Amino acid sequence: MQNRQLKILGGICALLLLIVLIFENPFGKSEDEKRSEEAKPLFPDFSIEQVSKIEIIAKGETTVLAKQNEQWVVATMDNYPADSNGVKDLLEKVVEFDNSTHVSDNPKNRAEYQVDSSGVEAKLLDGEDKTLAHLFVGKNTPGIFNSYVRVADSNDVYVGKGYLQSTFDKGDRTWKDRTIFKFEKAHVTSINISSPEETIELRLDSENKWQLLQPITAAANQTEVENLLSYYSALTTDDFAEAKELTAYGLNTPNSSITASLNDGTSAKLLIGKAEDEGNNIYVKRDDKDTVFMLSKSSVDRLIKKSDALTEKTTPPEMEDTNPSE
């Protein structure tokens, strides 16, 4: 009996000791924790608000992003609107860079870590072209989730959090904003879909229900219409087409279109052209813009719906059994 009590007391003591070790940490902080607390930013005077231009050099090509009237544009692509979220991510990463994890100070190691011309070079400038930050982003660390970083005028290589080359270099996807349409679907009052097969007209009634007016008069499938609007109101492109005459894309006389009319008198109309040679993508454009986009066939099919899919299916009433029971 006494041995059993001693074992219980021993177990309780061990449990209490474990709790103390976890919460009190009597042996002090780990080296990683110490380094993190003592870390200093690589760009201590850097301020996001001061940045007016970003120059990115990757694979021998230079991309310039510029802030115009508080909006970012791709200056090297005819001032096309830039991916604002992408710019925000880049700027925030520069703020986060610190010296907590030092890897090397040997200039001979730059190529190994790709923190030279083999990586991505970025220069951030203010409105007077004064350099606020100049750095090289290298390859991923062995752990994949981090990358190597070097300040341009230093030999020191550090570890930065995240897969950074994709943050600084968009490659073939470019820095262009991929948005085609962005509007509130709740503000849409009517939808028109035109295709070689039929013309469809949908309208919101006084009870906030969608009704089909063409090619037949019927109650609309509310879920199908809502899904259509959810997709259309936040439509993004799969790719950008080269600048050519609209005839090359079948957009001078589009074979299909979809229009959403909003309660403020505006509308969002997308013109559907022909498929590219490979047949995987279809050329499209807004009726009020010159840019030609490319959408997959499946994306276009989500927009150019058939009336049968948009019509509410009703279950016929059960037929009364007129045969007398035997």
The percent range for helix content is 10-25%
Report the end-to-end length measured between terminal Cα atoms.
83 Å
Oligomer: single chain
Unreliable segments of 5+ consecutive residues: 27-31
Largest sheet: 9 strands, antiparallel
The helix/strand class is alpha+beta
The Rg value, from CA coordinates, equals 30 Å
The order of strands across the largest sheet is 4-3-2-1-6-7-8-9-5
Taken from the alpha-carbon principal axes, the silhouette is elongated
Summed up, the domain count is 2
Give the integer mean of the pLDDT values. 89
Continuous helix count: 8
* Number of strand segments: 18
How much of the polypeptide forms β-strand, as a percent range?
25-35%
| Order of helix and strand elements from N to C terminus | HHEEEEHEHEEEEHEEEEHEEEEEHH
Characteristics of this structure?
alpha+beta; Immunoglobulin-like; nine-stranded antiparallel sheet; 8 helices; elongated
